[in-house]
Specification:
alpha/beta, Aspartate Aminotransferase, domain 2, Aspartate Aminotransferase, domain 1, 2 domains, seven-stranded mixed β-sheet, 14 helices, 41% helix, binds pyridoxal-5'-phosphate
Length: 396
């Protein structure tokens, strides 16, 4: 099998289309799907050499698989990272990024506004293994300063946050974290890899739910951890090999194809989101539109500086009539679907307080700013004007 082209010096969009492609002896144009769990050896000696690590080759698809490796290589080129390992879901990636490096007695400091399952790992699972966990309001630099005045091992955050779209200052948090001796793990799903490159601000590890914009058409689950060669070799590789959250070669192939159109799609998602947010804000002053691209967003300037001048593909609406109006709005949509998923070509709307964040207490939701009237919308690739007609009509 030959590597087709070295595209590492070429521009980002070229890397997304060409990066990592391994052509087989059949010279196929599109990447092949190697649907195999195992591999065969010419001789017993070759098998021995492979297991001793003397010969680099595929030995078992829980460890590595050619289609999966193509995806990992393309993701490295996309992110500008030294190493990448993909996983069966975004949560498997988050869990591996944290659990592979933490041990009893360690300390993790996280922003409070995390994806629900990420919060469960930080708040419920890690403490059971003796990891001390502390949560801060990610937008309050004083809280970060206080928490990181004592040594820490890991800092974990998500920006923009789900569902409130709070923006955290990556540069400042990375500087504080490194001074405290911690590695920084950033869940970059809401910004997408196109708009925000956390490693350029000092992040050590970036995680994705590839289920979202990387697949981009709502077909399969997947995740990715991007990091240095050293972190990958010292922590990640063995953790993943021996706990086994491997990505199916078929799903890896879907993600590879997703990357080819990622830049185009994300730009369109963001253009649509920007247009829709502006229009609803001007036509419906009674509705609070939360969108980092709007001047009314409390961290608008930081968002523009950190996210390539874009507000991103997600918007949130806070309806004054609370849960009743939020449900009325969702039930009146005729184009956008009610769904808790996001990052799909189809526009999806959800009521976080009763779905994704239902498990939290009223107090916790209030602290996170998840109001009964909040609706989160993942803006899709439909025509923005059709979506606007749908939203304005559903608002009544
Ligand atoms: C969806 C999501 C995850 C989890 O990813 P899965 O692929 O569903 O396991 C983690 N973080 C964020 C921000 C997400 O949106």
């Amino acid at each position: 099998m030959a590597r087709s082209k070295d595209v590492s010096s070429l521009r980002p969009q070229t890397r997304l289309v060409r990066g990592g492609t391994l052509r087989s002896a059949f010279d196929e144009t599109s990447e092949a799907i190697y649907m195999t769990s195992g591999y065969v050896y010419e001789s017993a000696e070759e098998a021995e050499a492979a297991f001793k690590g003397d010969k680099a080759r595929f030995v078992y698809s829980r460890y590595a698989n050619p289609t999966v490796s193509m995806l990992e290589e393309r993701l490295c080129l996309m992110e500008g990272a030294e190493a990448c390992r993909v996983t069966s879901s975004g949560m498997a990636a988050v869990f591996a990024a944290l659990m592979s490096q933490l041990k009893a007695g360690d300390r993790i400091v996280s922003s409070r506004a995390l994806f629900g399952s990420c919060l469960y790992i930080v708040n419920d699972i890690l403490p059971r293994f003796g990891v001390r966990s502390e949560l801060v309001d990610g937008t309050d630099m004083q809280q970060w300063e206080q928490a990181l005045a004592e040594p820490a091992d890991v800092v974990f955050l998500e920006t923009p946050s789900n569902p409130n779209l709070d923006i955290i200052d990556l540069q400042r948090v990375c500087d504080l974290a490194h001074a405290a001796g911690a590695r920084v793990v950033v869940d970059n799903v809401f910004a997408t890899p196109i708009l925000q490159k956390p490693m350029t601000f000092g992040a050590d590890i970036v995680v994705y739910s590839a289920t979202k914009h990387i697949d981009g058409q709502g077909r399969c689950l997947g995740g990715a951890v991007l990091c240095s060669e050293e972190f990958c070799a010292d922590y990640l590789v063995n953790f993943l090999r021996h706990t086994g959250p491997s990505l199916s070669p078929f799903n890896a192939w879907v993600m590879l194809k997703g990357l080819e159109t990622l830049d185009l799609r994300v730009r369109r998602h963001c253009e649509n989101a920007d247009r829709i947010a502006r229009k609803i804000e001007s036509e419906r002053p009674d509705v609070k539109v939360i969108y980092p691209g709007l001047g009314s967003h409390p961290q608008h300037e930081l968002a523009m500086a950190q996210m390539s001048g874009s507000g991103g593909p997600m918007i949130a609406l806070d309806l004054p009539g609370g849960r009743k109006q939020a449900f009325q709005f969702l039930n009146s949509l005729s184009l956008a679907d009610i769904s808790n998923n996001l990052g799909d070509a189809k526009t999806l709307a959800t009521h976080p307080a009763t779905t994704t964040h239902q498990r939290l207490t009223d107090d916790e939701r209030e602290r996170l700013g998840i109001t009964p009237g909040m609706v989160r919308i993942s803006i899709g690739l439909e025509d923005a004007d059709d979506l606007l007609d749908d939203f304005l009509s559903a608002l009544g």
